[in-house]
Specification:
The structure is a single chain. By secondary structure, the chain is mostly helical. It has one domain: P1 Nuclease. It contains 13 helices and seven strands. The protein has a three-stranded mixed β-sheet. Helix 2 crosses helix 9 and helix 2 packs across helix 10. The longest helix is centred in the C-terminal third of the chain and has 29 residues. It is globular.
Length: 341
């Protein structure tokens, strides 16, 4: 049981980064990515599978608890104390992770501007604990290269379940491409250009709202949440799987993605994934079928309203399906590189 002091400390650190974007792919998407990797490793890379699961297994009063990549993929989000979405309160394991990593909410995304084709360390929206840098960090930790960041202290088990989660995160377009507008709230700009120093952030698309005509209510509140959850749900329904996550993952694992394999040092893969995702992120904000209307409210600042047509929604669900597949296969490949078969 947590002491009062530890509980109070957790309450404080849970507030850090409270305005950060929501979890990429939502919980079903992350479980699907982990499940694909589980299937691929179990079928083709048994030694890697055993090494991974030896690190995930833990001893409990009731014996050894065997945990899958699909199960642990949601731990970094459940650690945020989002009981409404996670379905439970954070575990003692997740709370310990939070208390040692107070900046943990920054791990999940980079706020690099839409149109920034390559990852620019030190550029606007990046930091040394963003998703690109933390994938590299966890890869190096698991390869026993002993990386160091002042605000990061992970056990190897935490590094493994965090890596599982972050590979999913970086394949969600709005977690790598961030929309910034000029001060009129109407023109997309890149604040890495000094001429755009007054650019206004959309908080990862969380400030771009669905506002249907009353009394209708939106399915999801924002463009960011649409990409996290609606795109995955629509892809699953379109393929006839409803809410059957494991069956959907098994179907995705039956066919390799196009242009998914990586070469060179695994520590370089995250930046390459960013570069691949950047144009998809730009399309997510600008392709035909999406209309984002910005207005400047003198009292509250920029306000954005979004509408989508059927063509955009079909494209988005297809993107989500393929990105989940790529993330699952790439996670498996990354683990094979870290824990050779």
């Amino acid at each position: 049981m947590l002491t009062a002091v530890r509980a109070a400390a957790f309450a404080v650190c849970a507030m850090v980064g409270a305005v950060s974007p929501a979890a990429a792919w939502d919980y079903p998407g992350h479980r699907i990515v982990g499940a694909i990797a589980d299937i691929v490793l179990q079928q083709h890379y048994k030694t890697t599978y055993q090494r991974v699961h030896a690190l995930l297994d833990r001893t409990t009063p009731n014996g050894i608890e065997h945990r899958t990549l699909s199960q642990v993929a949601v731990f970094p989000d459940c650690a945020k104390d989002e009981e409404e979405f996670c379905g439970r309160r954070p575990t003692a394991e997740e709370i310990d992770y939070v208390l040692r990593n107070l900046v943990h909410k920054s791990f999940h995304y980079t706020n690099s501007p839409v149109g920034q084709a390559t990852y620019l360390p030190g550029g606007v929206g990046t930091n040394d604990t963003d998703v690109v840098q933390m994938i590299t960090y966890t890869v190096n930790q698991l390869r026993k290269k002993h990386p160091f960041k002042q605000d990061v202290k992970l056990t190897d088990t935490e590094a493994l379940w965090l890596l599982t989660h972050l590979v999913g995160d970086i394949h969600q377009p709005l977690h790598v491409g961030h929309a910034y507008y000029d001060k009129t709230c109407t023109v997309l700009v890149n604040p890495n250009d000094p001429a755009n120093k007054d650019a206004v952030s959309t908080l990862g698309g969380n400030s771009i709202k669905f506002v249907p005509k009353p009394p209708a209510v939106p399915v999801v509140p924002s463009l960011h949440i649409y990409w996290d959850s609606t795109t995955v749900a629509r892809a699953m329904r379109a393929d006839g799987y409803g809410e059957a996550e494991q069956a959907f993952a098994k179907m995705l694992a039956a066919t390799t993605p196009t242009v998914w394999e990586m070469t060179d040092d695994p520590a370089t893969w995250a930046a390459k994934w960013y570069a691949e995702m950047s144009p998809i992120a730009q399309q997510a904000y600008t392709r035909p079928g999406i209309a984002i209307t910005g207005t400047l409210d003198p009292a509250t600042g920029c306000q954005w309203v979004v509408t989508l047509d059927d063509g955009y929604e079909k494209w988005a669900q297809d993107v989500a399906r393929e990105q989940l597949r790529k993330a699952g296969f790439r996670l498996a490949a990354l683990l094979v590189a870290i824990f050779p078969n």
